[in-house]
Fold each of these.
Amino acid sequence: MLGFLIAALAGFLTPQIEGPVAGPIVKTLEGYFKVEPYEKRLIAFMVALLAAAICAALLDSGTVFGVIFGAVLGYFGSRIYTVIKKIIEGRTDSQ
């Protein structure tokens, strides 16, 4: 369970680490091949997922599925929350 929570946090923090963490990686990679601007966030997500997986392995907590699922939920968490909130508000308005 702890691995899931760590991965959810890592997924949620992906946009914040895009500049300071993925930026230097992209600059290094651009010396070898072209990196598209939209791939910068993907690189940040991969780094966050790798860090979450290492933490989960060190703490011996969580499964691979739990870490991946937590990271995806964390990444899309704010969007999922907004959709659920709109659904609930829609039900309340229609009653």
Amino acid sequence: MNAKRAYNRRTDEERIAELQAQIELLRTRAEEKQRPDGPVLKDVPRVATRLKKFAEKCNQFGRADLANSVYAFVAGLERAAEIDPTTESRRPRRARED
């Protein structure tokens, strides 16, 4: 009644690709640590989360006007800090189209 396990060995190319992805992640983190505004950007997701909870509470107590203002502020904050709200990771900088 002992079922044998099925092992899937990774190829050398798969292992190399995984290690390269890890190296890229570490490089990105090192660059972020060297930024002078790094501590500020690190706190943006936490602040945005708290503000969103506050906006939900505003909606619960019938203050949709406050909730809308808070949501607008959070959107601007995330855009200014270049944070992707779905993944909460930093987006690469885009060239401005002016």
Amino acid sequence: MHRFRRAALTPLCCLGLAACGEGIEVEPEPEVALALGAASEHADDELGPPRDEPQDEPGDTPDPDAPETTFEAPIEAWPIEVGDEELAVIDDALFVGDALFVAGRAGDTVVVLRMRRGVAEVAARDRFRELRAGASPVHLVTIDDHAAAMWLADGHLEAVRLDPTLEMAALSPTRASGAEGGRLTPPLVIAAATDASGALACAIDELGPTCLSIDGELSLAGMHVIKRRVAIGEPQALVAIDSGYMLVLGHCRNESCSRIDLGALALDPTGRPGKRRDLPLVQLDRGTAFVRDGDGFVLIARRVAAGEHSAWRVTPSATRELDGRFSRVVGGFAHDGETLLLERAHLRMRAGFPVRGYNVRPLTERVRGKHKSREETERHAIPEAIARQLPTDPDQRFTANGDALLFARPARKGRVAATVLRLP
């Protein structure tokens, strides 16, 4: 699992897109607000009424790279719609057992909703709401046998334990950063250990980037300040690997952070820093993704003054550029022991409106000889029964958290809508 910051700087969460405009309003299914549905490529009759989208008409734009194969997995789709007074911004989503937790903010309030498939509305006992002015985006992680929501507020790292059976309305957050201090400021990046034994959270302290080790009781187990000789800026991403974590730090070259120097720092399971790997100078505002891959991660970004995105595989021992085109990648996830990239399909005109879709692309590494040759990129279509449950707005946002893939569109007309796909 990985977390990355600046998710709202670009129309697709800094995950590989240039600005796409305001998008379009797609009429949702005629269902009760907050209703959750499940869909499977094997059971179209469980989908309920399809979204009222315009169908292809003569003269509509075809996708020149439409894949000929379909991603084989019994995916479930959980559509979500809620008023922005209840949840104005969706930050994260996580499955725990049969429950889906959705976290975000509404004004100065931190919100976590517990949702169940087939339940038409969220009861009061399934809502956690805590007034926290200026709170950072909320992160969801799995620790031991439970989940937790974490965020920064008043200079502290705060956390609340989540469970499918607990009365959420009665929950109170704890200070995971300890009673003393109060000097932490965003950006905040969080990742759970690969064995779910704990989590690591990194933010900015007055002494520099600081990483806090959190145990299964949501208590502070250790703290390490990144020394200035290896720290090159603010936390940008945190990726859990088998040997610990990799923290990406970045120093903006200008106020808009359109140019940023990046460096990856290996951390042990407690957050103690090790070797640093320098990364390219990239254009952060042109889309950047961090995808866990084996004992490291893949950085997808656009170099300064480059015309296309490139990709680098980064491990504690090496950094290597990958061959291929990556400008359409918005993120990635792991499935069945394989790293998969999620790509934007070509923006299509459907009935006079721009429509966005996605394809799945396996991350393959091709061995090149002396004379390089271009090889066709393998892509898989998302099953149609699932694809029609996703938002089609050009400016939606994608994030991945374990087996939860979140597709969220911007708030429009007082409503926030998203679809969470659950991988088997």
